[in-house]
Amino acid sequence: HALTIYNEMIDNQYLSHTKTGYIDLIAVRNIIYLNMNLRETKSFEAFIKQINHIVAPDQRKEIFLYASSLYYILLNNFSKALSFLFKINFNTFLESLDDNLYFKIDVKKYTIVCLIEVGYFDNALAQIDSYKHYIDYSRIIPKDIRLRNHKFISLLKQIISLKMKFDEYKLFQLETKISRSNEMNLFMKQWLLGKCLEFSNR
Questions:
Q1: DSSP letter (8 states) at residue 24
Q2: CA-CA-CA-CA torsion sign (157, 136, 138, 96)
Q3: What is the C-alpha separation between 3 and 26, in angstroms, rounded?
C-alpha cells in the first residue's frame, strides 16, 4: 500500500524531486496520516526517528513536534500530545501558503481533540472559536476546505455538548452524521465514532 511505498522511498533515499534531497512537506503529512489511519505505531515511531535525516534542517524542529504530537494521540496519550502541540510554530519556515494552511488547521483540530480527551471542555470551546475565526477570516482558504472544516467544527461542538448534557436522540443523530461523512480522515472519523460509543456504553 501507499505507506509501504513511502517507507521504501525513504529507505532508498529517493525523497524528493527537488535538488535539496530532502523530503517535501506534502509527503511528510501524507506519511503521518497514513500511519494514523492504519494505526501503525511502529512505522510511525521509525519515521519520527528519521526526521533529522530526511527533513530540511530549518523544518526539523516543527515537523518533529508535529509528528510527535500526532504519534502520542495515536497512543491515546493526549496530555503528552498537548505538550508537543503547544510548542509548534509553523509561521517561520513553511515553503508555501498551502503548507502553512494545512499544518495550521491540523494543529487546531488535534489540539481540540486532546482538550476534549483530557476533559478541558471550556478550553476546547475557546479553541473551537479560534479555529472557526481562522477558517472564516483567512483569505487563502478555498471555499470547499472552509465548508469541510465548518462541518467538522459542528461535530466537535456536538461531542462537547453531549459530554456536558447527554441526550440519546442527539447522540443517534450525531452518529448518523459522522457515519455518512466524507469530510475527514479515517482516524478522525473513528475517533468521533469512538466518542459516541463511549456515550452509548455509559
A1: P
A2: positive
A3: 14
